[in-house]
């Protein structure tokens, strides 16, 4: 049974070195903030998940996964019907950069995750399971990262700008006006965003809009509506940005997934 500390659910330690579980969620479901003692890989077979921590937000489209290090409080919001597969690993088994991150999932890793879920609990005491664990570790240490994250600046003024834009990604105000309302010049906010998020303010807003559009499309919204709500001036501008970020058009992306 999980415990609660400072409003965060503390999940109990799992007995097996590797545990793989399958879940199905409906649109709008929210997994409240909680923390695991294990490292965690959360994979979306379909739908879109939004993972939030104190450090930022990560949007996880279908056929992608998010890596969540042990001890990281996080919540998950479901967009569209989501088939989630999650793998828990004892800390230190996989050597990855610190912090959360969205990753592409190779066909081999996809099939491996699904196969592991049929076992649920894996141990090195079994030769076959030990081999599966070794392949999993090799795959997780080499997967490529995807820029679908939105780091949150810590400076109060920059954080106010981020919060304003997050509440309304399609806000028509200029960035200079948003910065002024937050109590600083655009130049100052630009410097703070670059220092604290490694993104320019414009790039950060662009990333926010892309992530919001993914949530809307997964929920069944039309491309034109998703483009407008996410703040793009025209559907064609949105499609161009989507293709640049994910390598295909939004229509083809979601059609390909629905056919799997």
Characterization of this structure:
It is a single chain. The protein is of the alpha+beta class and 260 residues long. It folds into 2 domains: 3-146, Regulatory protein AraC (Jelly Rolls), CATH 2.60.120; 152-258, Homeodomain-like (Arc Repressor Mutant, subunit A, Orthogonal Bundle), CATH 1.10.10. It is built from 9 helices and 12 strands. It has helices at residues 107-119, 127-140, 156-167, 175-181, 186-197, 201-218, 223-230, 235-246, 250-258, and strands spanning 3-5, 8-10, 18-25, 30-35, 39-53, 56-60, 64-68, 74-89, 101-104, 121-122, 145-146, 149-151. Strands 1, 2, 3, 4, 5, 6, 7, 8, 9, 10, 11 and 12 form a 12-stranded mixed beta sheet that branches. Helix 1 (107-119) packs antiparallel against helix 2 (127-140). The longest helix is centred in the C-terminal third of the chain and has 18 residues, at 201-218. The protein is globular, with a radius of gyration of 19 Å. The model has no long low-confidence stretch (mean pLDDT 88).
Identify the notable features of this structure and list them briefly.
single chain; alpha+beta; Jelly Rolls; 2 domains; 12-stranded mixed beta sheet; 9 helices; globular
Topology (elements, then pairings):
Layout: E1 3-5, E2 8-10, E3 18-25, E4 30-35, E5 39-53, E6 56-60, E7 64-68, E8 74-89, E9 101-104, H1 107-119, E10 121-122, H2 127-140, E11 145-146, E12 149-151, H3 156-167, H4 175-181, H5 186-197, H6 201-218, H7 223-230, H8 235-246, H9 250-258
Helix pairs in contact: 1-2, 6-7, 7-8
